Amino acid sequence: MSVSSLSSLSDNETPLRSRRNDIKLNAFEKYDDKEFRARFRVSKETVLYLDSVFGSTIKPLTKRNRSLQPVDQILITLRYYATGSYQRVIGDIFHIEQPSVHRIVHRVTVKIANMRSLFINMPTAEERLEVANDFYAIAGFPRVMGAIDCTHIKINSPGGAQSESFRNRKGYFSLNVQMVCDAKLRIRNIIARWPGSVHDSTIFNDSPLCAQLERGDFTPMVLLGDSGYPCRPYLLTPILNPRTPAEEAYNRSQIRTRNPIERLFGVLKRRFPCLHYGLGLKTTNIPPIIVACAVLHNIAISRQDEVVEEDDPLTIVEEEIMVQPSNETNQNFIVRTLLINTYFSG
């Protein structure tokens, strides 16, 4: 716009605000591989892989106003996951408005979360022996196909009559997210929809995974859980008051063998700090982000994308679950007792 044109504007008029992204961040050229992974938590190759899977479905219909291309949309979403920053801050980095960031993050999150069935699955019959051997190598615990536990993801108060159901026992609002992982920290199952006040065992009892285990779909394989879960033939927990050397040996092995789930929570929240700092979105928009981060975590493992910390790495400490007494029956103890007598009594 010329000086004369500017002078012709009245005091109440301003030039039309350009919606063009004149200074877009070309992250692929600006950062080397390590710097790129530190900022977006996955490699350049993984971003291109995501683009190849669903990029065509989020491609703008026109290049008008230099619309954001799929790779740019993926980078914006990853940067949001990697920082947990307000969407306005992300918009400032990419020189776009906050409403555009919101739409892009939602659009890309849905696409990534929809890849869940490809990357988050319980071990198949062919995989179970390898998974069990990986767990057995930790501390000699047999027939394990997964470690199970829950972690809390901070959220804002959702408001309304049911808001207090989201306040967990530590006093903040959260979603209580259940995960199962293998010894290589690959997420095998995830449920990300329960309010923070709901107990871990309630989430498990209501899950499709519990129904599969009750049917015997994975027999003779077992899960390992902490004392927040009831002991069952397919879910083995520590003995609350061990009385014999064999029971003490069982407890030591059980605790060490289920340690991967605690490590997983730390790795996942370091890779995607939005899960550590919390998500200030509508409650209905949060579960897809948690699932999308889980999918990306598994993709990163399969592509050997290591977590690269930024200048201020997080220290993640998962709290121990409070021991909850359970109404266990003799039938539920049988598998655990046989396993102790067979593997830990000598």
From TrEMBL:
DDE Tnp4 domain location: 148-298
Keyword Nucleus: yes
Organism: Parnassius mnemosyne
Cofactor: a divalent metal cation
Stated family: Belongs to the HARBI1 family.
Name by which UniProt lists this protein: Putative nuclease HARBI1
Function: Transposase-derived protein that may have nuclease activity. Does not have transposase activity.
Domain of life: Eukaryota
